[in-house]
Specification:
- There is one protein chain.
- This protein is of the alpha/beta class.
- The chain folds into two domains: 183 residues, Lambda Exonuclease, Chain A (Alpha-Beta Complex), CATH 3.90.320; 205 residues, 2-Layer Sandwich (Nucleotidyltransferase, domain 5).
- The protein has 19 helices and 14 strands.
- Helix 14 runs antiparallel to helix 15.
């Protein structure tokens, strides 16, 4: 039997994978990974774009279009949406082409409020392919969401979108035009395509550990590359270290062997090294006692939200990428140790119902413990207060009493080697108790969101009841986990 020849169809995303890691690209041709979107794309953006430009007779490309289909449409159509073009098996999808007097305007369409300057490389690569296909591009612009647009009534596409000749930096400022950015990163793709076609046919590419494996989050193929057992005190778990890979290459494997001179000197790193030297756990007890004494007052409310993020505002008073909190769990602990639970699960536009339920159930005094509150629950309440100003003062009284339970871990006040470089609530509860999220039907937040989407659309009473129970159980576990972690901290210093 002859050698298998792998399909050579390539996309710009393949170039990005190759730039990150040769093996990442190679694996992606053999083990494609499913991806669950973090946001709800609740409108067809191309239908909205057609409204924005008044397009009534546009060519609309499809996934498996023949390579000549779009080229032929250039002769007969004044607008092309999602047109596919190909050069040396590199297939691109151009969001929008509008015919001009001496060529075409290419409009990049983004489901973002501030498309970043790094997008210029993809634009430059598209232009390379279009040039090879003989498509003259005379202008490039970006059509993106207007982050300040607030929906009132039906979607106003003229206010929803912004057309710009710029992209944005990390501070959401536009300093250079797309034309300037593209000029800076324009490149010859032919040598890259030669390389990619060669890699695809290789039988194996050995894994190599490097910074790119975890930059911006773990690579989707991390587990495919590194399946070896990693101990709790492995140097791999060192947080915010620019030198751990070089130390590993020198034969240092554990936190005890760390080169102190090459540490960045953060409190978290100090806690990690000390935990290793103390054979398990480091605690700054005076600091932890102070934190508990200063911040905790009974009754203690343990609070957690679940929410959905919508690309396009589905309801009045919402902006692009606004969040709709559809569930909360609330455990309340009295000073005598009594623990009670209540919660809420809504559907569709349940924002005001959510607010009223929370205000009715949460104690008017005492500490409200939340895990990672600044980037989550507190923001949700501030958003609701902006949308429903009649409840602003009452909601403010809630977020001003919130205390972030993650702070002792984030600050390096405590570190247990079993944290393995992280301090998620799911990790901590398994360290401090016998409870495990894996025992639940829903074990991660995105699964909860997916279940809620099904719950909202289902007309089957049995299915709805089952999903309701699963959601209730998952969110209640989050607040009970907060209860477990808080008492573990208290027990450590008593």
């Amino acid at each position: 039997m002859g050698k298998v020849k792998w399909v050579n169809m390539l996309h710009l995303s393949d170039i990005r994978k190759w730039e990150r890691c040769e093996r990442c690209f190679w694996l992606s041709t053999r083990k494609p990974k499913a991806f669950t979107p973090f946001v709800n794309v609740n409108e067809n953006i191309y239908e909205l774009v057609k409204q924005y430009f008044g397009l009534t007779d546009a060519f609309e490309g499809e996934a498996n279009d023949d390579a000549d289909k779009a080229l032929n449409a250039l002769e007969t159509k004044n607008a092309l949406l999602n047109a596919r073009f190909s050069y040396r098996d590199l297939r691109i999808k151009v969001p929008l082409l509008l015919k001009k007097k001496d060529g075409f305007a290419m409009i990049m369409i983004y489901r973002l409020s501030f498309p970043k300057e790094k997008e210029a490389q993809a634009i430059a690569d598209m232009l390379y392919v279009l040039q090879k296909c003989g498509v003259p591009i005379v202008k490039v612009s970006a059509l993106h969401l207007n982050g300040s647009y607030t929906r009132m009534g039906s979607l106003n596409v003229k206010e929803l979108f912004v057309e710009s000749d710029c992209l944005y930096n990390s501070k959401n400022k536009a300093h250079k035009t797309i034309a300037e950015l593209v000029k800076d990163c324009y490149r010859d793709l032919d040598p890259i395509l030669d390389e990619l076609h060669g890699i695809v046919q290789k039988d194996e590419i050995p894994p190599k550990r490097k910074a790119a494996c975890t930059r911006g989050g773990k690579c989707l193929f991390y587990e495919d590359c590194f399946q070896e057992k990693v101990d709790d005190d492995s140097l791999l778990h060192l947080i915010q270290s620019a030198h751990k890979l070089s130390m590993l290459s020198e034969g240092k494997e554990t936190m005890q062997e760390v080169d102190i001179e090459r540490l960045e000197g953060t409190r978290q790193q100090y806690a990690q090294v000390m935990a290793a030297r103390l054979h398990g756990c480091y605690v700054d007890k005076p600091q932890l006692r102070l934190w508990l004494r200063t911040h905790i007052q009974y009754p203690i409310s343990y609070l957690d939200f679940e929410w959905e993020t919508f690309v396009f505002p589905p309801y009045d008073k919402m902006k692009p990428f606004d969040v709709l909190a559809f569930q909360y769990s609330l455990h309340i602990e009295q000073q005598d140790g009594t623990l009670t639970h209540t919660g809420f699960i809504g559907e569709k536009d349940c924002r005001e119902e959510f607010i009223l339920s929370l205000l009715a159930n949460i104690p008017k005094n005492g500490t409200i413990l939340v895990f990672n509150m600044e980037g989550a629950e507190k923001l949700r309440l501030i958003q609701l207060a902006n949308q429903f100003p009649q409840y602003e003062e009452s909601l403010r009284q809630i977020w001003e009493r919130m205390v972030d339970l993650s702070l002792p871990f984030a600050s390096g006040t405590i570190y247990d080697l079993r944290q393995r470089g992280g301090y998620s609530l799911k990790t901590l509860v398994s360290i401090f108790s016998d409870y495990h999220y894996a025992d639940l039907d829903i074990s991660i937040g995105m699964d909860a969101v997916e279940k809620w989407r099904r719950y909202s659309m289902s007309e089957d009473a049995g299915e709805r009841a089952e999903i309701y129970h699963q959601l209730e159980e998952y969110c209640a576990m989050d607040t009970y986990a907060e209860y477990i972690v808080y008492h573990a901290l208290r027990n450590i210093v008593t």
